[in-house]
Amino acid sequence: MENPLSSSERARVGLWIRLARCYNLAMRDLRSGLREECTMPQFDVLAQLERSPEGLTFSSLSEHLLVTAGNLTGIVDRLEKQGLAFRETNPKDRRQTFIKLTDKGREYCNKIIPQHTHDIAKLLSGLSDNTVQNLRGDLDQLAALLDRKQE
Amino acid sequence: MENPLSSSERARVGLWIRLARCYNLAMRDLRSGLREECTMPQFDVLAQLERSPEGLTFSSLSEHLLVTAGNLTGIVDRLEKQGLAFRETNPKDRRQTFIKLTDKGREYCNKIIPQHTHDIAKLLSGLSDNTVQNLRGDLDQLAALLDRKQE
DNA sequence: TGCTAATACTTTAGGTTTCAATTATCCCTG
DNA sequence: CAGGGATAATTGAAACCTAAAGTATTAGCA
Prior knowledge:
The structure is a homodimer.
Chain A: H1 7-34, H2 40-50, E1 56-57, H3 58-65, H4 69-81, E2 85-89, E3 97-101, H5 103-123, H6 129-150
Antiparallel strand pairs in A: 1-3, 2-3
Chain A binds a DNA duplex through residues 31, 35, 39-42, 57-59, 67-75, 78, 93-97.
């Protein structure tokens, strides 16, 4: 009835399971390192804003972070409430909103970004430089593939 | 002030970013393939149950799927409401609950598991068998590392 | 100019997720 | 055999997340 999986298909399913497992294990660890400070999604937004002093729109953030714009509304609301970021309507196109860091937000980034960066490096420090390079290359290949399927 | 990142640290941060990006891109695609049927977390639970006719406890599911037990309560509630699974208290230890598939749930699994498996294989079909093998090996190494940090 | 379609964000409904606090049960030791 | 500590699941609060519908605003074109 069911046509059985080819070994090549099985290998790919196994790859997906491993990818998901690594992601979730790492996520769990990194989240706990950030916990007292801010949430992971909030960090992701802050880190993007930090490298764009001119501000970012919801659309561009949504694209970079792979989350829906509807989702960002809430995250930015909370950042705004904490005084770390603020909205600014684009006067040239009043549909668009720029999100920018406040001074407090920038200061905060200067503290937690290096800290979080260090956590990541430490978490992955057990891998050889060689393995890291191989993984990066192969994942780039995979990302290119997945990007293409998106359109 | 800030001591700058070594190139080896930078490489590891880049690896994490790529891993997260691939995970999220793939997740987005696979979710939409499953959408009309059930949610991804529900699928994950069903797929585990399908290979354990004797049932699984919340604790063991929690461990396998890397989610908290509190989270599973809700997911299993919804599966139960849909008539796909049911709870059964362990008479030998009334603290434990076995979760099992109903007939309807088993039938349902027979339909969607092959379908989802096929979606995964198709999504990753653009990678060479060689790249798949390399990635699997390297991710196994990474998972072992992350597992160890967990304890 | 004025209508229509597209774009940008928000809202809503339904799930998911975590952490922390509870409840129920079991185990163990005095 | 009773109390204290561990284990299993649930509950509650807050945040995240998506898809789909809604609201403003802009752009394009007849």
